[in-house]
Design a protein that fits this description.
single chain, five-stranded mixed β-sheet, five-stranded antiparallel β-sheet, alpha+beta
Length: about 250
Amino acid sequence: GVCGSCGGYFKGKERTTVEEAVADSVRRAVRKRFGCVCVVEVSEGEAAVGAGAAGTREAGTRAAGAGAVAFVSVKAELRGVEVEESREVEVIFKNETCERCSRIAGGYYAGIVQIRAEERVPTDEELATAEEIAYSALGEADFVSKETVLKEGLDFYVSSAESGRRISKQVVKRLGGGFSESRRLYGRRDGKNIYRVSFSVRLPGFKEAEVVKIGEREFSIEKVRKGKGLECVGVSTGERVFVRKSETKTVKRV
C-alpha cells in the first residue's frame, strides 16, 4: 500500500520502495494466476522476476500517483509452448495511513528531551543548535510529535526512547554538559509494561571568575548565587551588576 500522508510505500507495516512494492504485487498476481512462486530482484528501477519452470519476467517501474506503471517483458513455457509478450501494466496501491503518520496525527510520544542549563537559562543560539541537532538525529521512522518552548528551556516530545537518547548524546557532545534519564510507567500492551522516558539535558553553567559579555561590555563573574543569578564586576570599569537567573540568556561567553 501507499500512505496518503507521507507518500511512503509499504508491504504490511514494513516501509519499502516503489519498485519493491510493484515487484511484490507482481509476485502475488503471478502466484494467483499461475500457481507458482516468483523470485523478484529490483535494482535502479528495473525488476527481474523468476518463476521457476514457468519462465522469467523483467520489469521497469515508474511511480504513477497511487499506483505505478510496470513495463513487463514475459517469457514463459505454458503447456510445452514458449510464450513471449511485452506490455505496460498499471499497479494500483491501496491508499492507507502508515503507522508512523497515524502516531504523528495522534500526538504519540515515547520520550521527552528537556534542554536546560545549570543555574542559567539557555541562550537562543544554544536552543537553535539543540533544535537543529534534534531533527538531524532522527532516524527514518522517528519523529518529533511536539516541541514546547518554556522560560527555562526547550522540550522535544519524541517517538522513541532510542531517538531521545541519541539526541541527548549529540546535544551534550556539541554544547557540553551532561544528561540523565528516568522512566515512568505509561501502560501495558500485550502483557508488557510500556514506559515513557524523560531525558534531562543540562548545559554547562557559568563559573566564578569567568569573563562574560553583557551587551557590548565584559564582566567577570564574582559569585554564582544558586537559584537567583550572577554577581558580576565590570572588567575595565569595576561596575557591579546583578543578573537575575531569568535574564542569564542574554549573557554570552567570551
